[in-house]
Amino acid sequence: MKGFSRRATVDEAISWIDQMTLPDVREELVALDHLAGRVLARDIISQVNVPGFDRAMMDGYAVRANDTAGASTYNPLPLEIVGEILPGQPFDGELQPGQAVRIMTGAPMPTGADAVLPVEKTESDNHRVLVMDSLPEQKHIGASGEDIRVGECVLAAGRRIRPQDIGVLSSIGLAQLPVFARPRTRIVITGNELLPSGTRPAGYRIADANGPMLAALVERDGGNVVNRELIPDTPEAILAAMQDDVDVVLVSGGSSVGIEDYAPQLLAQHGELAFHGIAMRPSSPSGMGTMGNRTVFLLPGNPVSCLCSYDFFAGRALRRLAGLPLAWPYRQQRLRLKRKIVSQVGRVDYARVRVADSQAEPIAVAGASRLSSTTRADGFVIIPTDSEGYPPQTEVDVYLYDNT
Q1: For a Cys staple, 343 with which of 191, 378, 389, 400, CB 3.0–4.6 Å?
Q2: Which class for 393: exposed (0-12), middle (13-18), buried (19 or more C-beta within 10 A)?
Q3: Kind and range of the H or E element at 280?
Q4: In 3D, which of 27, 26, 22 has the Cα closest to residue 179?
Q5: C-alpha to C-alpha distance for 190 and 249, rounded to whole angstroms
Q6: Is the pLDDT of residue 369 over 50?
Q7: Nearest alpha carbon to residue 302 among 206, 375, 218
Q8: Which of 369, 365, 370, 371 has its CA nearest to residue 383?
Q9: CA 222, CA 38: separation in Å to the nearest integer?
């Protein structure tokens, strides 16, 4: 056992991630019902107008606007009712002067009509309607293409699709779209002391917390977990797991410099260990590199360190591979500190904070094994490498775990 010969800076590690060679960008066609959260691989250009026809925006009567000139409750003007139009049913014929057609919201406008008179502005019997208000041309009409026009770029490549986007895509007649394939991700959880996630701890063994947490983070960042399992603390088992046919490998545990910390040695022997040891707290035992076409991240076993290392490094790489923005997917808020935060020049600190009374209160700086500190926290503050911390009432950027 020996310490790290040198700790890389956070900026060096992030720069390596941003400059690493990406595998060939893979696209796949995905059906409309499964598009939410996926990232568009190409611009989507509409081939149709939406709506594709002029339509009524009110229940009432399709009329010629000129026929309503001068109409009021004191001067009602009669028009002959010559038909009725329901949504999806066009009018057979052309509206003549002095005529009106009953029309429902969303129904196509008849030829010759240029306005819709709301039903509440009329009185009628079976054959005649009394017009009690004057209208300008195009009043209460939804024009063809007023929502989307032929040739319009509806959504641009790189957009993460939202539920309302799916509605728009359906409205232009698309059943499937090209999206970036989600990076295939292998989660390797090491530690002979671990029990499967969700298992009640017993004796001197503990339940795996990092596996399910990492799986949720990978899904958030556009990845696809193809395998996640506990691996025995043996070089052979860990190496075999690291060589799975995937894009990204996350190794949780065994990343430091202890007797059974095999992962860094294996990555150096069978691939490239770009960095091992980062000047940060927590997560200093983090590492990263490549093995064949895989990008490998060595994440500490302590849960908070694991979360921090993932967010700083692995999550950024996954978002890049998935076509998502590189920045953290956390909402930011500018708040004053309730109490001081102490740091050390030469390292980056990740401090959990609770938001109360419009202030950020530090709840833990140390304690990398206390995952519950992240659930008690509302977010975190980053103290840069050139700072000794912040005194009370300093304005800081708080990254909020909850984006709502």
Answers
A1: 389
A2: exposed
A3: strand 280-281
A4: 27
A5: 13
A6: no
A7: 206
A8: 365
A9: 7
Three-class DSSP labels, 204-257 = CEEECCHHHHHHHHHHHCCCEEEEEEEECCCHHHHHHHHCCCCCEEEEECCCCC
Asked if omega into 23 is within 30° of 0 (cis), the reply is no
Do both 170 and 208 map to the same domain? no
Sign of CA dihedral 98, 101, 103, 109: negative
197: tokens are: 């996630």
Q: Is the pLDDT of residue 49 over 50?
A: yes
Is residue 259 in a domain? Answer: yes
Phi, psi of 320 (to 5 degrees): -65, -45
Q: How many structural domains are present in the chain?
A: 4
Cα end-to-end distance, the chain, whole Å: 45
* Burial grade of 1 (CB within 10 A; 0-12, 13-18, 19 or more): exposed
Residue 112 lies in a domain: yes
Note whether 153 and 46 are same-domain residues: yes
Residue 235's CB is within 10 A of a number of other CB atoms, namely 15
In this predicted structure, what is the pLDDT of residue 194?
Answer: 84
What's the chain's average pLDDT?
91
On whether both 74 and 198 belong to a single domain, the answer is: no
- Which tokens belong to 112? 């010759």
Q: Are 212 and 316 found together in one domain?
A: yes
Q: Which residue has the tokens 């409750």?
A: 73
Q: What is the extent of the structural domain holding 107?
A: 55-142
Q: Which helix (H) or strand (E) holds 100?
A: strand 99-103
